Amino acid sequence: MTTVRIFFEKRGEAAYISLLDLQRVFHRLLKISGLPVWYTQGFNPHIYLSFSCPLSLEQESLCESCEVKTEREQIDGAAWQAALQPLMPRGIKITKVAPAVEKVAQIASAEYCIAMPADSAPSLESYNAAQTAEVTKKTKRGQKTLDLKEYLPHIDYKKEEDELRFAILLPCGSGEALNLNPSLLMDYLHEHGGAPSWQCQILRTHLYTKDGKDFA
Predict the structure, then answer these.
(1) Per-domain residue ranges for the chain?
(2) Among 1, 25, 51, 214, whose Cα sits 20 to 30 Å from the Cα of 64?
(3) Does the pLDDT at position 176 exceed 60?
(4) Which of 105, 147, 101, 146 shows the shortest CA–CA distance to 7?
(5) Which whole-number Å values give the CA distances from 194 to 115, 118, 123, 156, in the listed order?
(6) Assigned CATH for 2-100
């Protein structure tokens, strides 16, 4: 049994496809493609499909991935990519298909590039000047107060025409691992005079493993 990882970009209008709908899309298209994917056993067999650290709505990404299984010992990644891409909805681009290298549990952090309207600069300056930046994170066990400054002490931003751009690195993981959504920062900035989230762009550019390598 081989675990096959499908890497893809999720841009533009595809950012508004929820995880549940994305799962339905991939299930349907994998069936249509005729690729040799493995089905679970039992009374209701279905394609094994798992997504790695899926995004929130409205966020875009260059480094999304999901995995399926096949009973083939070797796969032709280019052939898989050629079979899937024509079926994909607009905004989803398959970038690579290959046997999985790391386990999803090895993901430790994610890098995001964020763009905000230029008039949001005072909120970023306020964040940098603050000693603490407390936010409330919702978890399965309730709510938890976190200080963003522990993970993001300072934001270095640049002005490009009428936008402010900056990159941030936040903890990202699955299961019980700490996972900080960049929307926590955007909500904090909005409360301190920044633009609302619908005027900003959040683009995930990298997923990193515990040893600092790109997730593969």
Answers:
(1) 2-100, 105-209
(2) 1
(3) no
(4) 101
(5) 12, 9, 5, 16
(6) 3.30.70.580
pTM of the model: 0.92
CATH number of 105-209: 3.30.70
Tell me the C-alpha distance between 92 and 14, whole Å: 6
**Which of 15-24, 37-46, 181-190 shows the lowest mean pLDDT across its residues?**
37-46
Q: What is the DSSP string of the chain?
A: -EEEEEEEEE-GGGGG--HHHHHHHHHHHHHHHT----B--SSS--B--EESSPPPTT-EEEEEEEEEEES-SS--HHHHHHHHGGGSPTTEEEEEEEE--S-GGGEEEEEEEEEEEGGGHHHHHHHHH-S--EEEEEETTEEEEEEGGGT-S----EEETTEEEEEEEEE--STTS----HHHHHHHHHHTTPPPGGGSEEEEEEEEETTSPBP-
Q: Is the CA virtual torsion 141, 172, 196, 157 positive or negative?
A: positive
